[in-house]
Amino acid sequence: MIWQALLLQGGYNAALVSLGAALLGASAGAAGAFLTLRRRALMSDAMAHATLPGIGLAFLAMVALGGDGRFLPGLMLGAALTAAAGLWAVQRLSRQIHEDAATGAVLASFYGAGIVILTLIQGLGTGRPAGLETVLLGSTAGMLRADALVIGFGGLAVCAALWALRRPLAMVAFDPLHAGMMGIHPRRMDAALMALVLAVVLVGLNVTGLILIVALLVTPAVTARMWSTTVTGTACLAALIGAACGYTGAAISAGVPNLPTGPVIVLLAAALFAVTLLLRGRRHG
Amino acid sequence: MAKDMAGKWAQQSGAACALRVQGLTLRYQDVLALDNASACFPTGAMTAIIGPNGAGKSTFLKSVLGLEQGEGTVSAFGSPVAAAMARIAYVPQRAAVDWSFPVRVIDVVLMGCYRQTGLLGRITAQTSARAMAALERVGMQAFARRQIGALSGGQQQRVFLARALAQGADLFLLDEPFAGVDAATEAAIIDVLKSLRDTGATIIAVHHDLSTVATYFDRVLLLNRRTIAEGPVATTFTPAALAQAYGPALGGVPLLRSAP
Question: How does DSSP assign chain A, residue by residue?
Answer without folding.
Answer: -HHHHHTT-S-HHHHHHHHHHHHHHHHHHHHHHHHHHTT-HHHHHHHHHTHHHHHHHHHHHHHHTTS-TT-HHHHHHHHHHHHHHHHHHHHHHTTTS-HHHHHHHHHHHHHHHHHHHHHHHHHHT-S--TTTTHHHH---TT--HHHHHHHHHHHHHHHHHHHHHHHHHHHHHH-HHHHHHTT--HHHHHHHHHHHHHHHHHHHTTTT-TTTHHHHHHHHHHHHHTT-SSHHHHHHHHHHHHHHHHHHHHHHHHHSTT--HHHHHHHHHHHHHHHHHHHHTT---
